[in-house]
Amino acid sequence: MQTSKFTKIAVIVLVLVFLVLSVISCSTHTHTHTHTTSGKKIPPGQAKKMNGDKSAKAYAPGQQKKR
């Protein structure tokens, strides 16, 4: 069973198109915004965790020094 030169070229082109489309379709989505919706403030403990601090005192509104 012999295949023509055109058939071989067509198969190669189809395989290359498939590979290119499969590589292009790979993408990742990262979320960069926080989940503070509807104007709510972040609790002091969560702000502490996000910044890596040991104490939440600096983030609590009742513990802020008066200026």
UniProtKB/TrEMBL annotation:
This is Quinol oxidase subunit 4. Residues 29-67 are annotated as: Disordered.
